[in-house]
Amino acid sequence: MNIERVKINYYKSIKEPMVLNFLSPSILIGQNNSGKSNILDAIEFALGNPIEGHNIFYKKADIEVDLIFDGKEQDENNFPDDKAKFILKDGERKLIFANKEIKYNKSLAILLSSKIKRLDEEAFRDYKQIELDYNSLFNYPTNLERFKEHLKSHFPKISTTKNALDVSYENEGLYEGDRRVTIDRLGSGFRRIFTMLLYIFHPRYSIVMISEPETHLHPAVIKRLLWAMQNSNFGQIIFTTHSPLFVTPISLRNLIRVVKNENNFTTAFSIDNEKYDYKRLIQELNADNLEMFFTDKVILVEGVSDRLLVRGLIDKFYQGQKDIKVIQTHGKGNVMLYLELLNIFKIPFLVILDRDAIRTNHIRDMMNYLQINLPPLSEQELINALKQYNIYILPNGDLENNYPRRYQLHDSKSNNALRAANLIGPEDYKSKVMSNLKEIIEDI
């Protein structure tokens, strides 16, 4: 059983209809309290495994889940089709196929809920249940071998045997070299990897929902875990995360950005059917600029020197509370690539360009994409008008004309910018030559 699509309304912080298309893995990102966990709660609540007390407080919950069943599930349960829509509305649950509605009863509730495994902090500490599920994995040799293979890639010194999780030393267990150990005696990182891989490869659970899988894990381990998730081929994985290491050009289609809107309601954005230049993104995106998905606002600049100086000025003089990420686009021609991505995921942005950009097609392309319609204007009038759309064009040329010359002592623009970022003080910042950059910093 897999989830193809879910529609949620009137559940916790989700007060407006939210439609999400799920791939595997589906990666939910967003700040704390944005509502990521509420999405997982809604799925768990709807599919026959209600959280205690929810039936009383969430009678208004309106949840639809499009499900896909495999052939075995279809045959064993005498389902008329492999696709169905699960509906929870006004406290009533229904499972509707194309030409037939299946009565929701206890056996159907058990079937649906048994296919879901929720891994939160409590589940990671439930060694008894983990032991039961690990021992049952020995009934599925193919899955067991895949599990062992991936576990060994993370921890080459660990070997596994049956009863590996028995907290008593009297039985066989995990072995680290020749030393017998049990999972509760090993590090928290190992315990989390062991548990996640167990459920990722366990055929009993079709849908595995994980809260912050990166906790206690080394960056290299996180990358290998993502690879395992992308290549498990056994079930569907949905997880929440604060780690940019799970975000790559390849995983962008799996990404769901969860935010609170101006009404403090949870909403979400994803690429879905949006077109984007995948090949160019592979060339452009790296671990540093992928952090833009986890920040409050992104500032796009053209080059290295722009990034160094703007970052330095923000660190010294920005007085707001937002987390700001400055990204160099390596030229005007790449700005649109980032702009499209930021717009799709509704990440607030600000663009800083040299004056010569006003005479290029790049400005026209940005205006067309952002649907900015302005009457015929002079260059200076256009520069002023674009500020309201968070596009700032330096009116007096390039960056070097916007900070004191006495800091420009090197042949390298980036060295000059780095020097200026370190030495510019409050009086410099208030000077006329820096008025354009000061205006930008204050407008963030």
Description:
35% of the residues lie in helices and 20% in strands. It has 444 residues and is of the alpha/beta class. It folds into three domains: 1-115 and 206-273, P-loop containing nucleotide triphosphate hydrolases (Rossmann fold, 3-Layer(aba) Sandwich), CATH 3.40.50.300; 121-202, no CATH class; 278-443. A six-stranded antiparallel β-sheet has the order 2-1-4-5-6-7, covered by helices on one side. A six-stranded mixed β-sheet has the order 8-12-13-3-14-15, sandwiched between helices. Strands 17-16-18-19 form a four-stranded parallel β-sheet, with helices on both faces. A hairpin with a 4-residue loop joins strand 6 and strand 7 (101-102). It is globular. Mean pLDDT is 89; it is low at 165-172.
Describe the strand arrangement of the main beta sheet, using strand numbers. 2-1-4-5-6-7
Unreliable stretches covering 5 or more consecutive residues: 165-172
> Looking at CATH, which topology of the largest domain would you report?
Rossmann fold
Q: What is the level 1 CATH name of the largest domain?
A: Alpha Beta
Roughly what is the average pLDDT, rounded to an integer?
89
Number of strands: 19
CA distance, first residue to last residue? 46 Å
Approximate shape = globular
Domains (count):
3
In terms of structural class, how would the helical and strand content be classed?
Answer: alpha/beta
Proportion of helical residues: 25-40%
Sheet with the most strands, sense and barrel status: 6 strands, antiparallel
At CATH level 2, the architecture of the largest domain is 3-Layer(aba) Sandwich
Beta-strand content: 15-25%
What gyration radius follows from the Cα positions, in whole Å? 26 Å
**DSSP summary: helix tally:** 17
CATH H-tier superfamily of the largest domain:
P-loop containing nucleotide triphosphate hydrolases
Domain OLD protein-like TOPRIM: 293-356
Domain Endonuclease GajA/Old nuclease/RecF-like AAA: 1-72
Pfam family, one: OLD-like_TOPRIM
Domain ATPase AAA-type core: 121-247
